[in-house]
Specification:
Elements (H helix, E strand, L loop, with lengths): L1 H6 L7 H26 L30 H4 L9 H13 L6 H10 L24 E2 L4 E3 L3 E3 L1 E2 L8 E5 L6 E3 L7 E5 L4 E2 L4 E3 L3 E9 L2 E2 L3 E7 L5 E2 L5 E7 L7 H5 L10 E6 L5 E2 L4 E4 L3 E2 L7 E2 L4 E5 L2 H8 L5 E5 L11 E5 L5 E6 L17 E3 L13 E3 L16 H8 L24 H7 L14 E8 L4 E12 L5 E8 L10 E3 L4 E2 L4 E8 L11 E8 L1
Helix pairs in contact: 2-4
Length: 552
């Protein structure tokens, strides 16, 4: 069943899907091959064999294919008029990933002809891993149909041998073994129907079908059909965004290490969110840059308005760290991963059209704590903010991020409404971001950022502190300026920058460095400490540090 699901009907290893991956890789390096060919393509020997030092150059040539290369090997009868790079690409497309017989059908043949391995008592004897009976074929393999659609189910076996059985209630046409409920006997399930004429579809339904030929059942064919009036919208730039990126998780814990999850990259994920008013289908979405994606068992295939789905590096590692029940739509494939230093993410729909395309980073103006300190990158106001701009992202409130959950943030207007009332003296002016109603030197935007009370004079310990501390950075102890502040991470409408200056005219964030990990207080706030890049003696006799806030 797994082989049939993955190899056919648009499964992740079906020839069309695999060719799409190959084509993207070919496109990535095609220009480089042209340059390589222009420089070196004609410099090798003309008669090349597998023992020649020039043998690896064969596929880098556009012209002058060696005359002793078999025509069948390159997939063309003419070995001189066409480029070898083109030949190799066409060989893969037409012979490996083309119409049957192709790699999928050949692999099924290998499964059918499998034998016991040499360590088994029955070594060498037949041990088929795929039935000789071919699976039924749906005239349309799932998707959107009109109410009343008549689904034809075809029997591809010679002479239409066997009987097609199907179900419409999600059960398997084979009867499960009563003792375990897991293994299947040869009996027909009581819920199964014998196919004799097209199946009329009047509601959303998942149809499962097999062919019973003598005592042998075929692999399972299954697909979901959705009525056109209730169909989700295809994913597009208008309804789907990447809303969270966890590109550099915390290291594995001892329990995770003992469970075999040794690489922090196994806990990576990114989240997509439906920002439209209607359900959105995730069918066929893929990455054109940054990652390759593949399916998982029972994936999330559509997202409700405001809902989200997750693509994870390793489903097992993700479940071990976060638990079960998350809306996982797929996983990273071909050992691809999210780059800790930032990279381009290009999410595309099933037709290759761009849904979102941007490059994230781990340096200003992007939040820096998601780079190994625990939080994830969270997009501020998904659907309204441009994800290509670093200041439109913030660090998650929770370590490990908030996969599958709508990020909670505090809007200025909501905060102001909770602290000021129309009956207050001076209202509405006292509720403006720049106002300081209690005259303690802090504007309302600062009160929101620090998590302090705009109606009371605040405890000085809650406000930023500038101190001189001693650090030994390898050249002996020296005094450095340290700027410390605690802030409310949910105040994501407030952007902040920390800059240093030696003369009050030239300001730069490069004159400061973050000291250690931000301290998470467990209440949605964290404390950050920045120190001067240079000691505050000798060449740097003084330094000015400022924290700038902006309501975005």
């Amino acid at each position: 069943d797994t082989a049939h699901k993955y190899l056919f009907n648009g499964g992740p290893f079906s020839v069309d899907r695999v060719w799409d991956v190959f084509q993207r890789r070919f496109d990535d390096i095609d220009e480089a091959i042209r340059a390589e060919s222009a420089r070196w393509g004609d410099s090798g020997q003309q008669n090349i064999d597998s023992n020649s030092p020039y043998y690896p150059e064969l596929h880098l040539r556009w012209t002058n294919i060696p005359s002793n290369v078999p025509a069948d090997w390159i997939g063309q009868s003419d070995t001189t008029d066409f480029a070898s790079w083109y030949h190799e690409r066409e060989r893969i497309r037409t012979r490996i990933l083309g119409p049957a017989p192709n790699r999928a059908t050949r692999f099924v043949g290998q499964l059918r002809n499998a034998t016991y391995n040499e360590d088994h008592p029955l070594a060498g004897q037949p041990n088929p891993m795929y039935p000789m009976t071919d699976a039924p074929v749906f005239a349309q393999h799932g998707g959107i149909v009109d109410s009343g659609y008549q689904l034809a189910i075809n029997n591809p076996n010679a002479g239409a041998a066997g009987t097609i059985y199907y179900t419409i209630d999600g059960t398997d046409p084979r009867q499960p073994d009563s003792s375990t409920g897991t293994y299947f006997s040869g009996a027909v399930n009581a819920t199964a129907l014998s196919y004799s004429s097209p199946v009329q579809i009047n509601a959303r339904v998942r149809i499962k079908a097999r062919i019973l030929n003598g005592n042998e059942w075929s692999a399972l064919t299954e697909a979901e059909f959705i009525l056109s009036g209730n169909a989700p919208e295809p994913a597009s730039a208008a309804n789907l965004v990447i809303s969270e990126i966890h590109y550099h998780p915390l290291d594995a814990t001892l329990d995770e290490l003992n469970a075999g999850y040794t690489d922090d990259g196994e806990f990576e994920f990114f989240e997509v969110r439906n920002v439209g008013p209607n359900p959105v289908s995730l069918e066929g979405i893929n990455m054109g840059a940054g990652l390759d994606l593949t399916t998982v068992p029972d994936p999330v295939v559509e997202i409700a308005p405001g809902g989200s789905a997750i693509y994870v590096a390793n489903p097992g590692a993700f479940a071990f760290r976060y638990g079960a029940g998350y809306p996982i739509a797929g996983q990273f494939a071909f050992d691809t991963s999210l780059n800790n230093g930032g990279e381009r993410l290009h999410l595309r729909d099933k037709d290759g059209l761009t849904i979102v395309d941007f490059t994230y980073d781990d340096a200003f103006p992007w939040p820096i704590t998601p780079d190994g300190y625990g939080p994830s990158l969270v997009l501020i106001q998904p659907g309204l903010r441009d994800p290509s701009l670093g200041w439109n992202w913030r660090a998650s409130n929770d370590l490990g991020g908030t996969p599958g959950q709508e990020a909670v943030f505090l809007r200025y207007d909501d905060w102001a409404d909770s602290h000021f009332n129309p009956g207050d003296p001076g209202y509405p002016d006292i509720a403006l971001p720049e106002s300081d109603p209690e005259m303690d030197g802090l504007s309302n935007i600062e009160e929101l950022f620090y998590g302090t009370d705009p109606r009371a004079v605040d405890d000085p310990s809650l406000l930023p502190q500038l101190t001189i501390e001693t650090f030994d950075l390898g050249s002996g102890p020296a005094p450095y300026a340290v700027f410390t502040f605690r802030y409310n991470r949910a105040a994501e409408e407030v952007g902040f920058t920390v800059n240093g200056s030696a003369n009050l005219s030239s300001w730069s964030p490069d004159s400061l460095v973050l000291v250690g990990y931000p301290q998470d207080h467990g209440d949605g706030t964290e404390t950050r400490r920045y120190r001067s890049l240079q000691p505050v003696d000798g060449a740097l006799a003084r330094i000015f540090i400022r924290l700038s806030l902006e309501l975005r």
